[in-house]
Amino acid sequence: MLNVEHIGIAVKDFSQANGLYFRLLGVEPYKTEHVESEGVNTSFFRVGGTKIELLEGTTPDSAISKFIEKRGEGIHHIAFEVEDILKEMERLKSEGFILLNDAPKKGADNKLVCFVHPKSANGVLIELTQEIR
Ligand SMILES: CC[C@@H](C(=O)O)C(=O)SCCNC(=O)CCNC(=O)[C@H](O)C(C)(C)COP(=O)(O)OP(=O)(O)OC[C@H]1O[C@@H](n2cnc3c(N)ncnc32)[C@H](O)[C@@H]1OP(=O)(O)O
Ligand SMILES: [Co+2]
């Protein structure tokens, strides 16, 4: 794993949360993006060497909407950048982690992503990300 690529935060009100993180961090998001396949709106703020990803569910059955309904707003996942996502998926599988995707899928911000089930990672949802080159 190379570094913490981003921390994902589930929010109820995208506009309110973007305003709050602007006031908190003193920077505008460098990108906002709708990811249809995940049923989310996302925005990314650079902070130090990593990023904060705000996520709003856009459909009632999206992972973010379900998370907020069950657990409220808050930290939803930690994303680690990897050099070779296929290799890392194989390694984690062999270590007994439960992967939520058989193959990498297209995420936000020009990345391939794969998720690790929180039940196999001490209650934390892990995202692997690899830049699409
Ligand atoms: C925008 C793209 C991408 C990026 O490029 O950055 C993203 O970040 S997308 C982010 C949204 N997408 C995902 O999260 C996809 C992966 N997640 C999933 O597949 C599911 O959310 C899940 C983790 C498998 C859970 O789904 P499901 O089992 O259908 O939901 P339940 O509500 O029944 O939850 C079961 C169980 O798991 C707990 N849970 C759910 N989410 C989390 C979480 N983020 N962190 C920790 N724990 C989580 C939930 O509370 C339930 O626990 P129990 O009640 O104790 O059983
Ligand atoms: Co993410």
From TrEMBL:
InterPro entries registered for this protein in UniProt: Glyas_Bleomycin-R_OHBP_Dase, MeMalonyl-CoA_epimerase, MMCE/EMCE_epimerase, VOC_core
Signal peptide coordinates: none
GO molecular function: metal ion binding; methylmalonyl-CoA epimerase activity
EC number annotated for this UniProt entry: 5.1.99.1
Residue intervals of the VOC domain: 3-131
One GO process term, biological-process aspect: L-methylmalonyl-CoA metabolic process
Keyword list, A-Z: Isomerase, Metal-binding
Broad EC category: isomerase
Family statement drawn from the similarity comment of this UniProt entry: Belongs to the methylmalonyl-CoA epimerase family.
PANTHER family, sorted: METHYLMALONYL-COA EPIMERASE (PTHR43048), METHYLMALONYL-COA EPIMERASE, MITOCHONDRIAL (PTHR43048:SF3)
Name used for this protein in its record: Methylmalonyl-CoA epimerase
Source organism of this protein record: Pontibacter arcticus
